[in-house]
Amino acid sequence: MRRLSLAFAAFFSLCAAAATAQAASPAAAPTAPRTLSVAAGQATTVLLNGAVRDVVVGDPQIADVSVVNDRTLVVLGKRTGVTSLFAFDAQGRTLTGGQVLVSDVAADAVTVQRGSAASTYACDGRCTTLTSAAQPNAGQP
């Protein structure tokens, strides 16, 4: 009976040691999928939790990616649209992934609607007009 209880104790202590070792192993947890917004002709950085080896862009005509170093990417918006971006480490684990939304207007731009005319501005101390267009009236011939 004593041998049986020693065998159970040894088994459970080995299981506990294996679980502790598995929890302590440094596995890179993937970042939750997200949407990255960037204006066409602009760039933004993406910081990673591990060293990147491979980068995949769904449509390189919409966005381009440059690897600055093993933990930093620069995403350049090329033309309006949506594409996907994924970065993988040397073991093939996903470091980040999600959609890249490229718009024709910067995210911090302001659009002012006056009747049927819309104007978009970028402001930083002084405002600069980005676009200004009158929208056609639905009731006019």
UniProtKB/TrEMBL annotation:
What protein name is recorded for this chain? Answer: Pilus assembly protein N-terminal domain-containing protein
Matching entries from Pfam families are given as: T2SS-T3SS_pil_N
What is the protein's species of origin?
Caulobacter hibisci
What taxonomic classification does the UniProt entry list for its organism?
Answer: Bacteria, Pseudomonadati, Pseudomonadota, Alphaproteobacteria, Caulobacterales
Q: What are the boundaries of the signal sequence?
A: 1-23
The protein's UniProt keywords, in alphabetical order, are: Signal
**Domain Pilus formation protein N-terminal: residue ranges:** 33-103
Spell out the InterPro entries in the cross-references: T2SS-T3SS_pil_N
- Going by the entry's taxonomy, the superkingdom of the source organism is recorded as Bacteria
